[in-house]
## 1
Amino acid sequence: MSVKNILISQPDPGDKKSVYHRLTEKYGVQVDFRPFIEVVGVPAKDMRKQQLRILDHTAIILTSRNAIDHFFRIVDEMKVELPTTMKYFCVNEGVSLYIQKYTQLRKRKMFTGKGTEASFLELLKKHKALNFLFPCSNIRKDSIPNFMDENKINYTEAIMYHTVNADLSDLASVYFDILVFFSPQDISSLFANFPDFKQEDRAIAGWGKTTNLALEEYGLSNTIPAPSPEYPSMVAAIEHFILSKK
């Protein structure tokens, strides 16, 4: 089979110079973007019912752009004035840069992991005297809460947004040669929308170990696994597959 069209289960980056759009320019492949999951914010009134008191905390744990967006949304809706002494712990540099969208922070208030989960957890441990607030989704990894509990670090988990399945019903009659997934939630959404989905001769590209496990659980084959030593990015893995089919 030759590859004619690809569906990326993420929002359109809106940049015609993105790595995926280069596939169109280079190979004439149509690339469509459609998020399989949606993020829905929890209203501030519900956070009040949960008796969330942001100012009882001295530090904020931020693990994603969504966490940042919804933390500052809740701060605004609850009309909270964040003190200048508040500290922010960002899981990686990308998250620490994104927070500048909402506030300019000096180095002494910003703490950033070195790109690995282990380095971030050790960073939290070095500051265990603080009282942390952990804004998160209803779907999140257990590693941070488990680590905090094991090390007796004070923290409050605050579910500020929900990750839910998107409505994909309009895709029922649309065929794509490659489906690209980045999380187990993408796979769950696929089957929530199409319980009888069969892979047939489609290629599936799955990013990371947890996505690969989800594909296996649903009886699907990860035709284009990434990352790998040969293909460290998803677009590189897809490009190799396209070339193999010419």
## 2
Amino acid sequence: MRRIFISFHQTDADEVGRLKLTLLPFFDEIRTLGASELGADLDERINSEDAEYVMSQIRSRFISGTTCTIVAVGRCTWARRYVDWEIAATMRNNPTDPRGGIFAMQLPSAANSGWIQLPERLRRNIHWDSQGVQSGYGRFFTPQSAPSVPELVEAAIRRAATIDPVPGSLIGLRKRNAPCP
């Protein structure tokens, strides 16, 4: 079994909590960084403007030991800076902790409302051909198109071992949250 990390916007915490409960039987551990896990603000806990240091701290403190990150896509997920940082930290390849697989999964509430805006860093790593077939390091699934999540995790891990993130994927971390209408 695998350890996974779920990245999400706080407004989707209840829905992600339900998702986490449905996935628990399939994984050894499911980590999230919601308000209850953070305690103090993440900025205060890391206390740096150095992007390289921020990514290394997120990777070592929160994502290390996981094999895949699922980005739970809700209405404002794209706007959250911590989601951007978590995506970059997942893509970071370290000698003792290789980069993880990654994919986005639209939450049912977002699907029902037609919200599909992806975080830019992840969107750049998903390529669609003219028939809508995806390639590249990342993937995106709607609730209707997703096969079983354990299968998606295994496929993402295989991609992470054979496909590099697009150049520039680890630079230019989001400095602040974007406004979300």
## 3
Amino acid sequence: MFRGSMVAIVTPMRMDGALDFEALARLVEFHIENGTQAIIAVGTTGESATLDFAEHIRLVRWVVEQAKGRIPVIAGTGANSTAEALHLTQQSTEAGADACLLVTPYYNKPTQEGLYRHYRLIADRVAIPQILYNVPGRTACDLKPETVERLADHPNIVGIKEASTLERLQELVRRCGDRLDVYSGDDGIAAEAILSGAQGVISVTANVAPRAMRELCAAALAGDRARTEALNARLAPLHQALFLESNPIPVKWAVHQLGLIPPGIRLPLTPLSEPFQPAVRAALHQAEVL
């Protein structure tokens, strides 16, 4: 349903942590102008964990209104409570989102049966395309391929964002690629994942290098390995530098360096530590975006 370079967009904030909707409007235009193929609003990179329900839905609605149908908007609606995830998914559907992205329930470590029932209940109750999201390094919860297979035939479940290993992505393509779109959730392995049959990447790097990520995905989807590898070589230092501290700390600093957003970030996250700033700046220069 969705293909190519999809940005997990940052949430602009002022120094006091207040949401900056004018800067968010600029970001939406920036991504449309540079060919990004979908915007994921209020995901992990958008600091969803620090937002209350009203802010969460207001941000989704704002992105939808700014996009004006020119680019798909996918709302992050996952939570570690099934009731909360259901509420966010329902509200984001009413706000006009084109799809929802639902991270696995974090911290409470459900069983595979619990994960199946969690996703099945939301898919049964909300008629919107839904993308599963597995990121065990953050959630202490791993959505196994066999559970994904059980969910793959539900008409409202259209994809999975997998942020673990290339081997897992390739396994998901083999098992479910004919029924679900598989997306890389890790920029560092996205090129090889797409060459292996994934349909795109939900990207942190696209926040600062949207055109280059669009070109990389297009080359990989076309099966052009040589061009994909050449493009990825230029971006590889950026993929790495944007995780020198916890996401979205480095990427928010980087987007601020481009002059697109103010430097605000909400506790418990803090601004990028000074020792890491030269490496991120150098990676931006190598990627030819600064």
## 4
Amino acid sequence: MTALLAAGDPQLVRSNDVAAALASVAAVSSGDDALERDRILMAHLIEDRAEAADRTTRPGHLTGSAFVVDAAGERALLLFHTKLQRWLQPGGHADGDMNLAAVALREATEESGIEGLLVWPDPIDLDIHRVAPPNEDAHLHLDVRYLVVAPPGAQPVGNEESQALRWVTQSELAGYGVDPGLLRLSGRAFSLARSLHP
């Protein structure tokens, strides 16, 4: 039976296994045309490419995102990204690590400042999006997305990567100008989070 994992769990060790990354991509259930298109393209872009998790790889590279929910599964954490100037979920570069659940948990911890986060080890969503950060060429992020659960009473403190952090309900998300991929992710994440609270 799948369970939430904490940092340091043996299932979250660093990996350079492309097959593991491909398995993560293949594991995401579809039912959505955009998601299925992204899954096929993502698999094509990372297949047999040991450098797929390196941030210098073009036309794009793997990233890991975390949809962080509070302990009750009622609110999600959004951050206003300093470079991209948009409201986003925590996440970031894999920096060579093909264990994308570990990447998502690490990025969520770094960007939220919350200790004791737990990650659902199976990805729940995929998204390919173009980014054009300052002083970098435009490229693709091949984003594998996970549910992360905060401990009770968690208060985010953030770091230099964000200008603001907010806990928001599912119904409030659209008011933050988030893209359709993040709205799809929120539906999947809140549904899973509710199933974890019998």
